[in-house]
Specification:
The protein has 442 residues and is mainly alpha-helical. Helices cover 74% and strands 0% of the residues. It is globular.
Length: 442
């Protein structure tokens, strides 16, 4: 029953998000449509619970599903007309049959990895402390209260739960819990599988915009699978990576194609990313910096992302939910850390980001296609560099021991930018691979 409820929740999110995805981009590839449908449907479910709580209605299966159905029906009616975000369809060139078989075989290998990840994510309740003490505890408290429990968040004894963090992930956990009718931590892991698949499908769709070679697209997807599936089950990294990557790649498309509509689509997913975690809000600022330095005319199109995350900051201020990074004598901490950066650098060198082959491959791609990196991929690279700077700035502001903070967060937060960086590497290498193959065939 628990597994059925988890799968049903994912199916409901996809079904509810499908009309929204159609309204957003009616000519999107099927892989991108599936990805954005789940992301939008899951965010919609969390938003419905947020609205119900705001109007003092206790959560129930009827009110949740009724609200999601109402929005989906309205979106479907609107989407039947001509979408304002239409773009020209692309036709796939003829490919030899053997390529189709090979691409299918590679995709089956990716499916095997996804199945293994699904087993890992649902083998039992996650042992991650941040789920037990932050994301999970808030979701369970909300479920027991039948709505957002502001008294729990305001209680100073509960500061350990990072009450300042955006609450979209606990609300999505509660979407599954409301549909099931009871709390079950184990099968919340199924949602992380869905977010991992959403991230991988989105990247696959954008890779297919870079190449018509189905084998190359399948191989690139397989290569990125290991970084698309987050090992931190129950935490916000997986959902943040999925929505943030979709937003980044949409904005990249908008910059390259001079499409304001694509920028606006990206802003939507960046707003969702910012509703998962504070680093998602930082990502919006990093994208703004990237646009300012590469395509400033599109900067105003980020208004939607800002509009989505602003209500939480207003509520956080109303309920006095302060983040630990802004507590105490901030200036003294910053001055002290800047005067002695050696502990931070030592910790960064000791507690590395892992995945050495990934970083070697990404570095080689940047070196081999340096000119394209600083022209075609400048927006994404600037954005990722600024986001990394935000990560490091948090260690300078932190009230905690720097070595401890780096040890338990560095690899995890860097994972938030590895998937878009992996996409950049593939986008840079694809012309080189195809050009070399063309010379060999000639």
């Amino acid at each position: 029953m628990t597994m059925v409820a988890a799968l049903l929740t994912i199916a409901i999110c996809v079904a509810a998000g499908w009309p929204l995805s159609m309204l957003l981009d009616r000519n999107a590839r099927v892989s991108l449509r599936l990805s954005t449908s789940f992301l939008l449907g899951a965010a919609l479910g969390g938003a419905i619970l947020f609205i119900l709580s705001s109007v003092q209605l206790r959560w129930s299966r009827v009110t949740l599903l009724g609200g999601m159905l109402l929005v989906a029906v309205i979106a479907n009616v609107v989407a039947r007309g001509r979408s304002p975000f239409d773009r020209a369809r692309t036709t796939q060139p003829f490919a030899p049959q053997w390529k189709g078989f090979l691409a299918t075989g590679i995709d089956l290998m990716t499916a095997v990895l996804a199945a293994g990840y699904a087993l890992f994510a649902t083998v039992g309740p996650t042992a991650e402390y941040d789920f037990i003490g932050i994301w999970g505890v808030k979701a369970r408290e909300f479920w027991l209260a039948g709505g957002i429990d502001w008294r729990f968040l305001e209680n100073p004894f509960n500061e350990f739960a990072h009450v300042d963090y955006p609450i979209l992930l606990p609300l999505i956990f509660d979407v599954q819990t409301v549909i099931r009718g009871s709390w079950d931590a184990r099968w919340l892991g199924a949602l992380h599988v869905a977010f991992g698949l959403a991230a991988l499908l989105a990247v696959r769709a954008f890779i297919e915009e870079e190449t018509d070679d189905s084998v190359l697209a399948a191989a690139a997807t397989l290569a990125l699978a290991c970084i698309a599936f987050s090992p931190w089950i129950g935490l916000a990294e997986g959902p943040l990576v999925a929505s943030g990557t979709a937003g980044l790649l949409y904005v990249r498309r908008g910059v390259l194609a001079s499409s304001s509509a694509a920028i606006l689509r990206g802003a939507l997913f960046l707003g969702i990313a910012g509703s998962f975690k504070n680093e998602g809000v930082a990502l919006i600022a990093a994208v703004a910096a990237g646009l300012l330095l590469t395509a400033p005319r599109f900067l105003a199109r980020l208004w939607l992302a800002i509009a989505i995350v602003t209500p939480w900051f207003v509520l956080r201020r109303i309920h006095h939910l302060q983040t630990d990074l802004t507590t105490g004598p901030i200036l003294d901490r910053v001055t002290g850390h800047l005067a002695n950066l050696q502990p931070m650098f030592s910790a960064l060198a000791t507690y590395t980001t892992g995945k050495p082959f990934f970083w070697i491959g990404a570095g080689l791609a940047l070196v081999l296609a340096f000119r394209a990196a600083i022209t075609r991929e400048r927006f994404l690279l600037v954005t990722l560099l600024v986001q990394t700077a935000f990560f490091l700035a948090a260690y300078i502001v932190t009230p905690h021991d720097v070595t401890w903070h780096v040890r338990w967060s560095w690899e995890r937060i860097v994972s938030q930018i590895t998937l878009p960086l992996g996409f950049v590497a593939i986008a840079l290498l694809t012309p080189l691979i195809e050009g070399r193959r063309g010379r060999l065939e000639g």
